[in-house]
């Protein structure tokens, strides 16, 4: 765990916006500028930080701005947008710059309070823990646990696509290399096992067994190559998208 580094944090200053707002909204923004919560400097502290900022905003009746589904409750869109942007700026001020860069790594627009907090929850909160478990589950996929290489490749591909759907960073070529290592290891184990069996059997049985095993190996290899090439083609497309080719 990386050390927490204490540093002086300047007070948050409201965004300057050239829009007319009501006196009530001005008063809320002024009160918001006086709210102080502990800064988030490490992912492990996110859950406690989220509770703190939710409670702090709740004292001003602003907690509902963190809920995207509550947007329809605001009859004055301009007033809602102004306060939402101010709250997002206030929250960003209370997060370490390193974590802010992580939040904005994909170029997402996080200028509104609900989108800001939803992205933070996904990356740092319970979603962060869930994603760690998803990644751990994917890395545990082993060809030895499947009845055929084609089943393994299918499970590996589904696991990789699941990571992508949850915005878990893993480059396609990393997944391809991992799959190749599994296939190489599995093929070596199969060939070693057959070689040992052929050595221990009598010559009369060896000939028939060798024919059966060779046919089995050849069939398995054909299926593996076809499924792997299909997966490689799709991940290559994803790689081009990631790299902006």
Q: Can you describe this structure?
A:
This protein is mainly alpha-helical and 245 residues long. The protein has 2 domains: 23-124, no CATH class; 131-243, no CATH class. The chain is 66% helix and 0% strand. The chain has 9 helices and no strands. α5 packs parallel to α6 and α8 (172-200) runs antiparallel to α9 (203-243). It is elongated, with a radius of gyration of 28 Å. The two termini are 36 Å apart. The model is unreliable at 1-7, 201-206, 217-224 and 241-245 (pLDDT under 50).
Secondary-structure topology with pairs:
Blueprint: H1 23-34, H2 46-58, H3 77-93, H4 97-103, H5 113-124, H6 126-139, H7 149-165, H8 172-200, H9 203-243
Keywords summarizing the entry:
245 residues; disordered C terminus
Radius of gyration, in Å, reads 28 Å
Helical proportion, percent range? 55-70%
pLDDT under 50 segments (min length 5)? Answer: 1-7, 201-206, 217-224, 241-245
Structural class: mainly alpha
Q: β content, as a range?
A: under 5%
Basic shape:
elongated
Question: In a nutshell, what does this entry contain?
Answer:
This protein has helices at 23-34, 46-58, 77-93, 97-103, 113-124, 126-139, 149-165, 172-200, 203-243.
